[in-house]
Design a protein that fits this description.
It is flat and about 90 Å long. It has 4 helices and 9 strands, in the order ββββββββαβααα. Strand 8, helix 1 and strand 9 form a beta-alpha-beta unit. By secondary structure, it is an alpha+beta fold.
Protein backbone atom coordinates (compact mmCIF):
# COMPACT_ATOMS: atom_id res chain seq x y z
CA UNK A 1 0.00 0.00 0.00
CA UNK A 2 1.49 3.35 -1.03
CA UNK A 3 0.17 6.77 -1.97
CA UNK A 4 -3.53 5.85 -1.57
CA UNK A 5 -3.18 2.80 -3.82
CA UNK A 6 -3.02 -0.95 -3.30
CA UNK A 7 -0.71 -2.99 -5.51
CA UNK A 8 -1.49 -6.70 -5.91
CA UNK A 9 0.27 -9.52 -7.72
CA UNK A 10 -1.65 -12.19 -9.57
CA UNK A 11 -0.78 -15.89 -9.71
CA UNK A 12 0.76 -15.46 -13.17
CA UNK A 13 3.12 -12.78 -11.87
CA UNK A 14 1.30 -9.82 -13.36
CA UNK A 15 0.46 -6.85 -11.16
CA UNK A 16 -2.59 -4.69 -10.70
CA UNK A 17 -3.23 -1.44 -8.83
CA UNK A 18 -6.38 -0.42 -6.92
CA UNK A 19 -6.85 3.30 -6.30
CA UNK A 20 -8.10 3.78 -2.73
CA UNK A 21 -9.16 7.40 -3.10
CA UNK A 22 -12.60 8.99 -3.29
CA UNK A 23 -15.24 6.82 -4.93
CA UNK A 24 -13.57 3.54 -3.96
CA UNK A 25 -16.07 1.32 -2.15
CA UNK A 26 -14.72 -2.16 -1.36
CA UNK A 27 -13.39 -5.38 -2.81
CA UNK A 28 -13.41 -9.08 -1.93
CA UNK A 29 -10.36 -11.26 -1.46
CA UNK A 30 -10.49 -14.86 -2.63
CA UNK A 31 -8.72 -17.60 -4.49
CA UNK A 32 -9.53 -19.53 -7.65
CA UNK A 33 -9.91 -23.29 -7.29
CA UNK A 34 -11.56 -26.11 -9.19
CA UNK A 35 -15.05 -27.13 -8.10
CA UNK A 36 -16.68 -30.28 -9.42
CA UNK A 37 -20.41 -29.79 -9.95
CA UNK A 38 -23.15 -31.67 -11.75
CA UNK A 39 -26.87 -31.49 -12.37
CA UNK A 40 -28.80 -31.61 -9.11
CA UNK A 41 -26.03 -30.07 -7.00
CA UNK A 42 -26.80 -27.29 -4.54
CA UNK A 43 -24.70 -24.14 -4.82
CA UNK A 44 -24.28 -21.28 -2.35
CA UNK A 45 -23.85 -17.87 -3.97
CA UNK A 46 -21.27 -15.73 -2.16
CA UNK A 47 -21.55 -12.33 -3.83
CA UNK A 48 -24.26 -9.93 -4.96
CA UNK A 49 -24.79 -9.30 -8.66
CA UNK A 50 -27.78 -7.03 -9.27
CA UNK A 51 -27.83 -7.37 -13.06
CA UNK A 52 -27.78 -11.16 -12.81
CA UNK A 53 -30.27 -11.14 -9.90
CA UNK A 54 -27.84 -13.02 -7.67
CA UNK A 55 -27.97 -12.45 -3.90
CA UNK A 56 -25.16 -13.24 -1.48
CA UNK A 57 -26.16 -16.26 0.64
CA UNK A 58 -28.73 -17.56 -1.86
CA UNK A 59 -29.01 -21.33 -2.41
CA UNK A 60 -29.55 -22.47 -6.00
CA UNK A 61 -29.73 -25.83 -7.79
CA UNK A 62 -27.81 -26.82 -10.90
CA UNK A 63 -29.88 -27.92 -13.91
CA UNK A 64 -27.10 -28.44 -16.45
CA UNK A 65 -23.59 -27.40 -17.47
CA UNK A 66 -23.14 -25.64 -20.81
CA UNK A 67 -19.52 -24.85 -21.60
CA UNK A 68 -18.28 -22.41 -18.97
CA UNK A 69 -21.80 -21.46 -17.86
CA UNK A 70 -24.05 -23.10 -15.29
CA UNK A 71 -27.79 -23.37 -15.95
CA UNK A 72 -29.97 -23.25 -12.84
CA UNK A 73 -33.33 -24.91 -12.29
CA UNK A 74 -35.03 -21.52 -11.98
CA UNK A 75 -33.93 -20.52 -15.49
CA UNK A 76 -31.06 -18.23 -14.52
CA UNK A 77 -27.54 -18.70 -15.84
CA UNK A 78 -24.27 -18.36 -13.94
CA UNK A 79 -21.89 -16.87 -16.53
CA UNK A 80 -18.16 -17.35 -16.79
CA UNK A 81 -17.36 -14.00 -15.16
CA UNK A 82 -19.27 -14.86 -11.96
CA UNK A 83 -17.35 -17.39 -9.88
CA UNK A 84 -18.32 -16.43 -6.33
CA UNK A 85 -20.03 -19.66 -5.31
CA UNK A 86 -19.31 -22.97 -3.59
CA UNK A 87 -21.13 -26.19 -2.74
CA UNK A 88 -24.30 -25.43 -0.80
CA UNK A 89 -24.73 -28.57 1.26
CA UNK A 90 -23.28 -26.92 4.38
CA UNK A 91 -23.90 -23.29 5.37
CA UNK A 92 -23.41 -21.20 8.48
CA UNK A 93 -26.34 -20.55 10.79
CA UNK A 94 -26.24 -16.89 9.75
CA UNK A 95 -26.58 -17.82 6.05
CA UNK A 96 -29.31 -20.34 6.91
CA UNK A 97 -31.72 -17.73 8.31
CA UNK A 98 -34.99 -17.82 6.42
CA UNK A 99 -34.22 -21.21 4.86
CA UNK A 100 -35.74 -24.60 5.77
CA UNK A 101 -35.18 -28.25 4.85
CA UNK A 102 -36.84 -31.55 5.69
CA UNK A 103 -33.78 -32.71 7.63
CA UNK A 104 -30.99 -30.63 9.16
CA UNK A 105 -27.60 -31.71 10.53
CA UNK A 106 -26.05 -29.20 12.95
CA UNK A 107 -22.28 -29.45 13.50
CA UNK A 108 -21.08 -27.72 16.69
CA UNK A 109 -17.46 -28.74 17.16
CA UNK A 110 -15.34 -27.55 20.07
CA UNK A 111 -13.35 -25.35 17.65
CA UNK A 112 -16.42 -23.24 16.84
CA UNK A 113 -18.18 -23.19 20.22
CA UNK A 114 -16.89 -19.68 20.93
CA UNK A 115 -19.36 -18.42 18.32
CA UNK A 116 -22.29 -20.44 19.70
CA UNK A 117 -24.96 -18.73 21.78
CA UNK A 118 -28.67 -19.08 22.51
CA UNK A 119 -30.00 -17.16 19.49
CA UNK A 120 -27.54 -18.69 17.02
CA UNK A 121 -28.30 -22.24 18.18
CA UNK A 122 -32.05 -21.65 17.90
CA UNK A 123 -31.63 -20.54 14.27
CA UNK A 124 -29.62 -23.70 13.53
CA UNK A 125 -31.99 -26.26 15.04
CA UNK A 126 -35.17 -24.59 13.76
CA UNK A 127 -34.23 -24.95 10.07
CA UNK A 128 -35.48 -28.57 9.92
CA UNK A 129 -39.15 -29.18 9.15
CA UNK A 130 -39.16 -32.87 10.15
CA UNK A 131 -35.87 -33.80 11.76
CA UNK A 132 -32.77 -32.20 13.27
CA UNK A 133 -29.60 -33.88 14.53
CA UNK A 134 -26.81 -32.13 16.46
CA UNK A 135 -23.20 -33.36 16.29
CA UNK A 136 -20.60 -32.16 18.81
CA UNK A 137 -17.42 -33.41 20.47
CA UNK A 138 -18.08 -31.53 23.74
CA UNK A 139 -21.65 -31.87 25.02
CA UNK A 140 -21.05 -30.06 28.32
CA UNK A 141 -19.52 -26.96 26.72
CA UNK A 142 -22.26 -26.87 24.11
CA UNK A 143 -24.94 -26.94 26.82
CA UNK A 144 -23.17 -24.12 28.63
CA UNK A 145 -22.93 -21.94 25.51
CA UNK A 146 -26.54 -22.38 24.39
CA UNK A 147 -27.81 -21.08 27.74
CA UNK A 148 -26.12 -17.70 27.24
CA UNK A 149 -27.65 -14.83 25.32
CA UNK A 150 -25.79 -12.88 22.65
CA UNK A 151 -26.90 -9.53 24.10
CA UNK A 152 -24.06 -7.07 23.75
CA UNK A 153 -22.86 -5.63 27.04
CA UNK A 154 -21.85 -2.05 27.58
CA UNK A 155 -18.21 -1.54 28.51
CA UNK A 156 -19.16 -0.49 32.05
CA UNK A 157 -21.04 -3.80 32.53
CA UNK A 158 -17.89 -5.82 31.90
CA UNK A 159 -15.87 -3.91 34.52
CA UNK A 160 -15.96 -5.33 38.09
CA UNK A 161 -18.19 -3.52 40.61
CA UNK A 162 -15.33 -1.89 42.54
CA UNK A 163 -13.76 -0.55 39.35
CA UNK A 164 -17.18 0.59 38.15
CA UNK A 165 -17.55 2.84 41.21
CA UNK A 166 -14.06 4.33 40.76
CA UNK A 167 -14.71 4.80 37.06
CA UNK A 168 -17.96 6.69 37.73
CA UNK A 169 -16.20 8.86 40.33
CA UNK A 170 -13.55 9.83 37.75
CA UNK A 171 -16.25 10.63 35.21
CA UNK A 172 -18.06 12.88 37.71
CA UNK A 173 -14.82 14.63 38.67
CA UNK A 174 -14.05 15.37 35.04
CA UNK A 175 -17.59 16.63 34.58
CA UNK A 176 -17.23 19.02 37.52
CA UNK A 177 -13.88 20.31 36.23
CA UNK A 178 -15.38 20.90 32.81
CA UNK A 179 -18.33 22.84 34.25
CA UNK A 180 -16.02 24.93 36.42
CA UNK A 181 -13.82 25.78 33.44
CA UNK A 182 -16.88 26.53 31.30
CA UNK A 183 -18.32 28.92 33.91
CA UNK A 184 -14.99 30.74 34.22
CA UNK A 185 -14.82 31.22 30.46
CA UNK A 186 -18.40 32.48 30.37
CA UNK A 187 -17.68 34.92 33.21
CA UNK A 188 -14.61 36.24 31.41
CA UNK A 189 -16.60 36.58 28.22
CA UNK A 190 -19.34 38.61 29.96
CA UNK A 191 -16.76 40.83 31.67
CA UNK A 192 -15.07 41.50 28.35
CA UNK A 193 -18.46 42.32 26.80
CA UNK A 194 -19.29 44.78 29.58
CA UNK A 195 -15.89 46.44 29.15
CA UNK A 196 -16.51 46.96 25.44
CA UNK A 197 -19.96 48.37 26.17
CA UNK A 198 -18.54 50.84 28.70
CA UNK A 199 -15.88 51.98 26.22
CA UNK A 200 -18.48 52.48 23.50
CA UNK A 201 -20.75 54.44 25.86
CA UNK A 202 -17.86 56.70 26.96
CA UNK A 203 -16.89 57.30 23.34
CA UNK A 204 -20.50 58.13 22.46
CA UNK A 205 -20.80 60.60 25.36
CA UNK A 206 -17.55 62.26 24.36
CA UNK A 207 -18.62 62.65 20.72
CA UNK A 208 -22.05 64.07 21.60
CA UNK A 209 -20.94 66.27 24.49
CA UNK A 210 -21.93 69.97 23.89
CA UNK A 211 -18.98 71.99 22.61
CA UNK A 212 -18.13 75.27 24.40
CA UNK A 213 -16.63 78.30 22.71
CA UNK A 214 -13.21 79.35 23.86
CA UNK A 215 -12.15 82.97 23.61
CA UNK A 216 -8.62 83.39 22.31
Amino acid sequence: VEHDSLKVQRADGSEGVFQLGRGFVSFDVGETRKLRIAAGDKLLLQANAARKRFINGELVEVHAIQGDSVLLTDGRVIPQNYRSFTHGYAVTSHAAQGKTADEVLVVASSRSLAAVHQQQFYVSISRGRERCQVFTDDVDRLRSHVTHSSRRLAAVEVVPRVRQQKFMERVLQRGHRFLKHFRQRMTQSHSFGRGIKQIRESSYEHQHKPRRSIRV
